Amino acid sequence: MTLIDRESADLSDVDDEVLDSLHTKLTGQAQAEGVLDVAYRTVDSPVGRLLLAATPKGLVRVAFESEDHNAVLESLATAVSPRVLAARGRLDPVARELDEYFAADRRRFGVPVDLRLAKGFRRSVLDRLNDIPFGHTRSYAQMAAAAGSPRAVRAAGTACATNPVPLVVPCHRVVRSDGAAGRYRGGEAAKLTLLAMEGAR
Q1: What number is the average pLDDT over the span 50-60?
Q2: How far is residue 201's CA from residue 195's CA, in Å, rounded to a whole number?
Q3: Mind listing the pLDDT tens digit for each residue in 11-44?
Q4: Cα–Cα distance between 165 and 10 in angstroms, integer?
Q5: CB-side neighbour CA atoms (13 Å) of 80
Q6: Distance from CA of residue 132 to its chain's centroid?
Q7: Widest CA span of the chain, in angstroms?
Q8: Which residues are catalytic?
Q9: What is the arithmetic mean of pLDDT over 59-88?
Q10: 129 in Cβ contact with 159 (< 8 Å)
Q11: How many Cβ atoms from other residues are within 10 Å of residue 115's Cβ?
């Protein structure tokens, strides 16, 4: 038996409760020492399983299943910090607000958001999205104008389609001028579900 085989055999004897306890201890220690740069967890939702990730500044990423959660975590390790760790507790406030939103008990999110992954004009568009009331929509042209560049309609569409924190920063409320849903990070079906849930369509 090789050393790796022996270690694998040893780990298989450790029960899940012990592993969970060790992980909780590791997470707590990393947080206490200020080396937990990106915490993440997953939650179930009416639009599929979501990956939530946060920095000490706030929610930095919400990813749909179709985006491949492992790939998203790898991109966060590159773009933000390689110190990425599953830490459910740190994302509890976000998970709670999402539950309230999907239960129709919340119309606006209050958790802090870290928009470091959006730059330039895209960031300007995202900064205006929370101005769209629950149950209402705006066109990409209106968002381009609100962000200060009325002719940058396509760029406004790209900003919404690449929003790193969909749902919480409500890019699903932005539609095409002809009334069609337009692109969405979670897919058109998810966007239509959200609009219908808010009574916007």
Answers
A1: 97
A2: 6
A3: 555 566 654 554 455 555 556 555 689 999 999 9
A4: 40
A5: 30
A6: 19
A7: 68
A8: 171
A9: 96
A10: no
A11: 18
Supply the pLDDT for residue 9. Answer: 47
* 173 half-sphere exposure, CB direction, 13 A CA radius: 24
Say yes or no to pLDDT of 103 above 70: yes
pLDDT tens profile 110-167: 999 999 999 999 999 999 999 999 999 999 999 999 999 999 999 999 999 999 999 9
pLDDT of 40 reads: 96
Place of tokens 């990730």: 53
Residue type, 55: T
Q: Could you tell me if 175 and 188 are in contact, meaning their C-beta atoms sit under 8 angstroms apart?
A: no
